Amino acid sequence: MTALLAFDGLSKDWFGVPAVTDFTLGIEPGSSLGLIGENGAGKSTLMNMVGGVVAPSSGRMTWQGEPYAPATPADAARRGIAFIHQELNLFTNLSIAENIFIDGFPRRFGLIDRARIAATARSLLQRLDLDHAPDTIVGELAPGERQLVEIAKALHREADLIIFDEPTTSLTPRETARLFDVIARLRAEGRTLIYISHILGDVTRVCDQVAVLRDGRLIDHGPVADFPVPRMIRAMIGRELSGLFPDRSATPSPTVIFRAEGLGQPGVIETISFEAHAGEILGLFGLMGSGRSELARAAFGLDPLASGTLALADRPLTGPTAARIAAGMAFVTENRREEGLMLEAPVADNLSLVAVRAFGRGPLALLDREAHAVATERARAELGVRAGRIATQPVKALSGGNQQKVVIGKWLMADPRFFILDEPTRGVDVGAKYEIYTLIDRLAAAGSGILFISSEVEELIGMCDRILVMSRGELVRAFTPPFNREQILASAFREAVT
Amino acid sequence: MSELPPAGITPRPDIRAPAARPAGADLGQRVRALLLSDYFVLYLSLAYFLALVPFLPTLSTPGNIVNLMSNMWPLLVVAVGQTFVLTIAGIDLSQGAVMGLTSVVVAMLIATAAPATVLANAPIWGSLLTEQGGLLAGIPFASAVGIAAMLAVAALVGLFNGLAVARLSMPPFMVTLVTMIAVAAFAIWLTQSNNIRELPESFISLGKGDIVSVYLGPKLESQLPRREVYSFITWPMVIALAAAVFAHILLNRTVFGRWVFAVGINRKAAEISGVPVARVIVTVFVISAVCAAIASILYTARLETGRPTLGGGNFLLDVIGATVIGGTSLFGGKGKVIWTFFGVLFFVLLSNTLNLLNLSAFHIDMVKGGVILMAALLDVVRTRLMRSAT
Q1: Residue ranges of the ABC transporter domain (chain A) (predicted)?
Q2: CATH number of the domain encompassing residue B117
Q3: Which domain holds residue A111?
């Protein structure tokens, strides 16, 4: 039997740094392959090559026995490969039916054939047990339902291979159960699946084959029956977990630096109380929609709070954002392009944005340009930002990791004592992640308190002194070392802890 | 180390000479540098001027140059105000209306006389304005108080615009469109669309003023008695340049200027970084309206008339056109006062030459529209060049 999709010595490197090396594997039609590996193991790069997003540096792929070299994502879609991404690619302002047909509306007399779209969409939704009218706007659906719409899209295109990338991270247990139902049906129809997940129990449940990637190489693979979870972990880790994270250079002091008491905003967060200590890295884990970013925004004075009090170094924290910054608070938002950086502006101006007032001289606040140049260059050097002339180079010309360092760095000149870091390593490559972890450790060692918000349990376990878990707007549990990954996840999902 | 070649080695010219590059690449580099230069629009204006002089000899006569400059100063002040607003990714459509209103305000306060035949129907007749002139007629420093009133009224309009944009999150286009309509209508209602003349000499002198003049000999072939002395440095010039220099320092050399750019490039990031975004927006709209009031002083003094329709018609086209031609982006985050200066120069030169060509007003506006289109296209090209440069 020929493989549906076969990889033959596929490799990809980025500027000489290998991301995937000599990957060779065949995927039988009708099989279900679990692809596992740590963050940065090369799963995304591999899937991006399948999807026509990046071109391999060497090696080749075959699709149904024929050479396959997609130049664009559209090529991949035409061959019958569908992606269900972690971050869904739906138009939230359009209806379910419009989303399903977005890449080719059937027409009648030159106009969109609404009746046919609705009928087709309805039958697709029935197959997936999604109980919504086809003209429902996607923005009104829950995350799990949106995912089913993505699957409906794949079914409509008659995709032979459906690739799921971390499909359950933002689903409730009920939604997860429904997804597995649908996956079972897809398999019964004879469709081929690639299932990427960190949740190894799910892989055992959904897949019949397992492939483990580490450092861009295929380390181990075989039928799922021969792959108990310990074997998966051994293959995935292969080295000490601590190698991914810098050693913590100081221990937290007993001094409370930041205190939140009874924070509440109806429908968003409920009676949240916690303390953060000087020098402590306090983790906050929660799924998408758990209220973790909302908590951060409210604490920073960007969103309203109906109840509760905040204190920084025993002084009450109130007023607008600017007052909280002056009191010593810093906030690195999860979305650096939209909220963190002035992309078109030079690196230096980005670095000095928060503290720019300090460079004003005289009644007109004339900018002391020499002091500005010196201070921003010093900040650049301290952060290890690799850039050209920071006075002129726009920050958008930097790599993701260096951009993120600038987002963190712009706060340093203001000398804050409490940092909220919301997903500080999102969209950053492995090497830069390590540098950002080191930077976070340095901030803590210097006596700042840090609230480290993340949806990657691994990095919280690797970096934090304590981990709080948030779910549906509430703090549900606090963990102390040694951390239990499964328990943290379970409490985030509000599943019974076993 | 000296720059001499090491002893014993004779430099061979054929080796040391830089490898011959294709002439095209060199030219491309230069065109690129020219396009990205701050002075690009100045060069463009000079080239345009020099290219047209042979066909339009009047263009370079002292009389025309004085005329050109006197047209430039009030427009420059308004455009400088617009530069601030465009830089925060806003737009101020109400500048023209503010000019009309402030022109009426100052005239009704300081006019030395007013004819009942013309103004008796105006709502201000009898209270603010009588046969004996405006409220402040005859008191010392009437002109100064009148000007202060103009600036205050303008600041109020700007404050309204700014608060609506910053606090109510209304789009600047809508807010200033509404103030444009309402303020212009209010100005016209105040005088029932009539002009107020008879302004005191102390005010009128602000529109001319011979600080430095040049005598260029008697004008020989003039049928009408024409001036033989040309005023090169006038009050409008001094006021406009002072305003422009102050604005340049404010935008490029102060903390406030950094905040203006920050708000224009990424308002959300600015907010999170503690930039007082609302205050910056309000201040910028106040600056814009106050600039319009200053221009209104210059125009009102030059016309020797308080005119409610001052700044009406296509005036806004000139202001935004000149600012954008200079290189300030309509999308925010990119603007310089010096660019606006050159943009105004180019725009005034363009209008002047089109007038000298005896084109009708309609033709002139058609050509101006085309030029603004070219400027917008050029902006796209420049932006692309800048991207590829980094």
Answers
A1: 5-240, 251-497
A2: 1.10.3470
A3: 5-240
